[in-house]
Design goal:
mainly alpha
Length: about 180
């Protein structure tokens, strides 16, 4: 092997950096999904318990204007459930992820780029993707980029969901106190 061929191969350190970064992103994605799952479950359980109580005491709730905090509470739960479900919803894989570099084809390592291909078509796609070590590096970088983008979107939605949940519970508590004092 000459020096030029050695330089084009991925070093062990580079492979470890890619592997570690990808593992960290996957772990963080799992954490984000767990947080979204907790938010979804907690809000669904709260709605499940509150609905029969409301229906069983509807006259008292209307007479005492307790429906005001209950509407805030329900809106909070539904908004939080919606955002948590958006985090857990799989991405749209019918849109092929295009390369960030126009000289490099889409990554053959991301299943969304090939899951609808026939086996022969995939082998050709993979062979082309592995033809040049620089393309392999570009594919790995692309995959990390898209995983990071998806993770960033998940975390942003979770942050908004938590903010809505916290603000909604606070507003529900304040409006309940005000309703009980005023009415």
């Amino acid at each position: 092997m000459d020096t030029k061929q050695k330089k084009s191969k991925l070093s062990r350190e580079t492979v470890n950096v890619f592997r570690t970064t990808q593992r960290n992103n996957i772990d963080l994605t799992g954490i984000a999904d767990n947080k979204a799952n907790v938010l979804l479950s907690v809000n669904a359980i709260m709605l499940t318990f509150i609905i029969p109580l409301v229906l069983g005491n509807i006259d008292y709730i209307v007479d005492r204007y307790i429906f005001i905090p209950l509407i805030i509470f329900a809106a909070t739960c539904f908004a939080t459930i919606y955002l948590a479900a958006q985090v857990l919803k799989p991405s749209d894989f019918d849109k092929k992820r295009h390369s960030l570099d126009p000289n490099v084809k889409s990554s053959p390592f991301f299943f969304g780029n090939f899951y609808k291909m026939e086996v022969d078509e995939y082998y050709a796609f993979l062979r082309d993707g592995l033809a040049d070590e620089n393309f392999v590096k570009a594919h790995l970088a692309q995959d990390l980029y898209y995983i990071g983008r998806r993770l960033g979107n998940k975390m942003a939605h979770i942050r908004i969901a938590f903010n809505i949940f916290i603000a909604g519970i606070f507003l529900t508590l304040i409006s309940t106190i005000l309703v009980l004092i005023v009415f």
